[in-house]
Write a structure and sequence with these properties.
Blueprint: E1 2-5, E2 12-15, E3 19-21, E4 24-26, H1 32-37, E5 46-52, E6 58-64, E7 72-78, E8 80-87, E9 98-104, E10 110-113, E11 117-123, E12 128-134, E13 143-145, H2 166-169
Antiparallel strand pairs: 1-2, 2-10, 3-4, 5-12, 6-11, 6-13, 7-10, 7-12, 8-9, 8-11
Length: 183
């Protein structure tokens, strides 16, 4: 397993070893031991799986408030997505900064997003499937979102009119959010 640091502290790209032969390929998509050996001690408790039928679907930017914040390990198992994390930890040197990476069934990369970050993704192909692990259960009373096009954050999505849920269409700007993350 290869853990690649990004320009934002605690945000990592994970690459697993791929074993290929004439039959296809195999990988350990997650290993608690390998994570621990790389200094990443996270107890994942739930796996989630989504399908976005069309290219141009944007989901996000989502997070859960403390004390029910979630760490996420995200991968795209069919199609491709542009996956984004935004540092919402007030006092962090990278507060309000974002980082994006393409995740696809082809490249098999994963994105490790810690507590204190908003997460969102844009589908780059039809029928994109995203699977992710979380270390905290879904808690509707702590569930929050901020606008994907918040000018204070200015994520470079590369799309003007994405396909959005009603929740994401009506998400507040960060300045109007009750986000409670501290660095």
């Amino acid at each position: 397993m290869k853990v690649i640091k990004t320009e934002i502290e605690d945000l990592y790209i994970i690459e697993t070893k791929i074993y290929e032969d004439n039959r296809g390929w195999f990988t350990e998509s997650y290993s608690a031991i390998k994570f621990k050996n790389n200094g990443l001690e996270i107890e994942f408790i739930q796996d989630n799986h989504s399908l976005s039928k069309e290219k141009g679907v944007l989901r996000g930017l989502h997070f859960q408030l403390s004390p029910r914040a979630q760490t996420k390990l995200v991968r795209c198992t069919r199609g491709s997505i542009y996956d984004v994390a935004v540092d919402l930890r007030e006092g962090s040197p990278t507060y309000k900064k974002w980082f994006g990476v393409e995740l696809s069934a082809e490249n098999k990369k994963q994105f490790l997003i810690p507590k204190g970050f908003a997460h969102g993704f844009l589908t780059l192909s039809d029928n994109s499937e995203v699977q992710y692990k979380v270390d905290e259960s879904y808690a509707p009373e702590y569930d929050r979102s901020i606008r994907f096009d918040d000018p204070e954050i200015n994520v470079g999505w590369g799309i003007d009119n994405p396909i959005l849920s009603e929740k994401d269409k009506n998400a507040p700007l960060l300045v109007n959010s009750d986000c409670n993350f501290k660095y």
